[in-house]
Amino acid sequence: SKAHQLNHFSVLPYNMSSALHTQGETTVIRGGRVIDPASGVDKIQDVYFRDGVIIDNPEIVSKSHERRIDEDSSSTKKRRLEKPHSRDSHVFDATELLVVPGLVDLHVHVYEHATPLGADVDRYCLGRGVTTVVDAGSSGATTVNGLRHFIAEKAKTRVLAFLNIAAHGLAAAGCSGMGNGGELDSLNQVNVKMAADCIKENRDMIVGVKIRLSADCADDGANEQEAFRRALQAADAAGVPLMTHHTFSSVPLDGQGGCPGGLRKGDIYTHMLHGFPSTIVETKSGDGTPQYRLGPGIASARERGVVFDVGHGAGSFSWTTAEACAKHGFWPDVISTDLHVECCEGPAYDLPAVMSKLLHVGMPLPEVIRAATQSPAKAIGWDDRVGSLAVGRNADVTVLRLETHVDGVELEDCQAQVRRVKHILTPVAVWRDGVRMEVNLRPPFMNPASLRGVARWDDLLVRDSDKPKFRCC
């Protein structure tokens, strides 16, 4: 479609955003399908905000006092027709579009230039409709001040953080599972008191603890169990959730020392849809055709209140695993990207793209929206500020187009397995705290470079019957 051919100059640039927000003026997003699960709303209605806050429909708004911002979706030209007035409102026409709370990405890596995985947060998050992100462990107690100063305080995206239990975070660590060592190779960097104190001193930004449970990040597994125990202690001491990455791990799924077996209510199990060792899906013996079921302790962990998160990334989303979970009605509580430099141009792309994948496997649209708004906001205790369009909340608003492709669009998972997806969510407009920001469009699917994940296909325990016929690049 033509929408995929646009470049970022066709959409409002950052340096013009202030022209669309003036103190005391009202913005109206008119005629869209508003989906706000936190408020129980799913209907055609208008959304109003002023001075960075969602407001009720103001009686003073008059059609004669409007400055219209019209979008012609076929030509993508914008025109603004202004009339003399003393009190006016900005009106965005959202007819046939979805209007949702500003998206919340619970798992990203955006400590750009200071860590191997750090991506450009404003380009790949705010520029794709995500107003709030949580950096998932890029920094630890000795490096989080850099994340605050160089990223959070300068970004237009709202940047929060899970503190890595390792004091140095991911300062020298890339993706796990590659056999290269990692942040838990020495336990002298895993200090419970240091982590808990750091969180208490940075409550405005740090919302939890993060640990990567992969054997090659922890002295070939020798330090995993102890580091996990300390991470739980730190989270408990600070009164925050623990987010666990669990792939290629020596830590089992079930049991008090397992993951998610040892997690508490409110703790977050990310990367739930990977198909590698430590997957939450296990193979049943059958007639030669693989049959999948949930692994031990998974259902009971959900019943206990553990939050299950997608965390797509460069290796942690498998179409086969997602379809197996869908068959059992085991949907993610939270949809997140695990966005970083190795997946922001594919296979994750951005949060609306990952949401589209869950939509494809059968997750209902309102629940997809909930999993990228209300649920992540609640998981970090910020649901009184973000993740909703309720009156009085921050005016973080995202407008999406639900594109229908009759013949489908090929979309890859992390190991180059492909599905033909007929419904794609694409960002159209975004406001953070009432200020309209730039939207930059993603590259067309599929990016050939992202198909390099086929090199790991043979390591999958849960996978399609036939290996993808792509050459590793």
Topology summary:
Elements: E1 26-36, E2 41-50, E3 53-55, E4 66-71, E5 78-81, E6 89-93, E7 98-101, E8 103-108, H1 121-124, E9 130-136, H2 144-152, E10 158-164, H3 192-201, E11 206-213, H4 224-238, E12 242-246, E13 268-269, E14 281-284, E15 291-294, H5 298-304, E16 307-308, H6 319-327, H7 351-360, H8 365-370, H9 374-379, E17 397-412, E18 418-432, E19 435-437
Parallel strand pairs: 1-6, 1-7, 4-6, 8-9, 9-10, 10-11, 11-12, 12-13, 13-16
Antiparallel strand pairs: 1-2, 2-3, 4-5, 7-17, 14-15, 17-18, 18-19
Short description:
The chain is of the alpha/beta class.
Description of the molecule:
It is a single chain. This protein has helices at residues 121-124, 144-152, 192-201, 224-238, 298-304, 319-327, 351-360, 365-370, 374-379, and strands at residues 26-36, 41-50, 53-55, 66-71, 78-81, 89-93, 98-101, 103-108, 130-136, 158-164, 206-213, 242-246, 268-269, 281-284, 291-294, 307-308, 397-412, 418-432, 435-437. It has 473 residues and is α/β, with parallel strands linked by helices. It is globular. It starts with 25 loop residues before the first strand and ends in a 36-residue tail after the last strand.
- Overall average residue pLDDT: 89
Query: How many strand units?
Result: 19
SSE order, one letter for each helix or strand = EEEEEEEEHEHEHEHEEEEHEHHHHEEE
Ends distance? 27 Å
What Rg, in angstroms, do the CA atoms define? 22 Å
Principal-axes geometry comes out as globular
- Biggest beta-sheet profile: 10 strands, mixed
Q: What share of residues are in beta strands?
A: 25-35%
Number of helices: 9
Helix-and-strand structural type: alpha/beta
Determine the fraction of residues in helical runs and give it as a percent range: 10-25%
Poorly predicted ranges (pLDDT <50, ≥5 residues)? 1-20, 71-87
